[in-house]
Amino acid sequence: MDILIEAYHYAFAHQEQLRIALQQHLLLVLVPLTIAGLFAGSLGWQCARWSRQQRQRTSLYAIVVLNLFNGLRVIPSLAILFLVIPTLGLTFQAAALALSLLAIPPILLATEVGFRTVPAAIREAGLAMGMTPWQLFLQVEMPLALPIVLAGVKTATLEVIASATLAAFIGAGGLGSLISLGFALNNTAILLVGAIPVTLLALGAEGLLSGLERALLS
């Protein structure tokens, strides 16, 4: 309890530092998720389209793409961060690129599965009703695939929120800077000032996205 009180006093006395760290952390989460969502969403949809054209469970092209990006998941987050440093240096852009690479696999896989598993009979019924491909996508495929896609987005979001703390090691800031400062000073209170907001962000994101999943499935 004394540690929590000490952490509260530190946070109160360093509100500006905490505010800046929180803003940086949110940017380190939102920017990579946006990049990964746009890239992995479009590529996942294309993989599903290849599979439908081949009239098989998963096309060869889709297997190659999915396995290529799934291979990124075995690389530790910190290793990905250091791999991009030679190109982009110790910058926010380097952290954003590394976190985007981390977020792509779960979104890509979920998008491919979501759109591939839309029943062909439902798609054919939509076409028979005179729907254009764009109408079919928005009114039929997207609503059916969205719950699965959202599950991938949730996984990616939680991974990025946690891994963004490592961005402090390459000078990109965020709440990880407070955590690393706490470790450096052997001060648990400062460490908690960084760790507690990260935990709350993860719990909030998980609750929000799980609620959306339930709403879509109900």
Summarize the structure.
This protein has 218 residues and is mainly alpha-helical. The chain is built from 9 helices and no strands.
Question: Any overview of this molecule?
Answer:
There is one protein chain. With 218 residues, this protein is mainly alpha-helical. It has a single domain, classed as MetI-like (MetI-like fold). The chain contains nine helices and no strands. The longest helix has 40 residues.
Number of DSSP strands? 0
- CATH C-level class: Mainly Alpha
Q: Could you tell me the strand content as a percent range?
A: under 5%
Largest beta sheet, briefly? Answer: none
Specify the helix fraction band: over 70%
Q: Oligomeric status of the shown chains? A: single chain
Count of DSSP H/I helices = 9
Mean pLDDT level: 83
What's the CATH H-level superfamily name?
MetI-like
Q: Which structural class fits the helix and strand makeup?
A: mainly alpha
- The assigned CATH architecture is Orthogonal Bundle
Helix-strand topology string: HHHHHHHHH
State the CATH topology.
MetI-like fold
- Any idea what the radius of gyration is? 21 Å
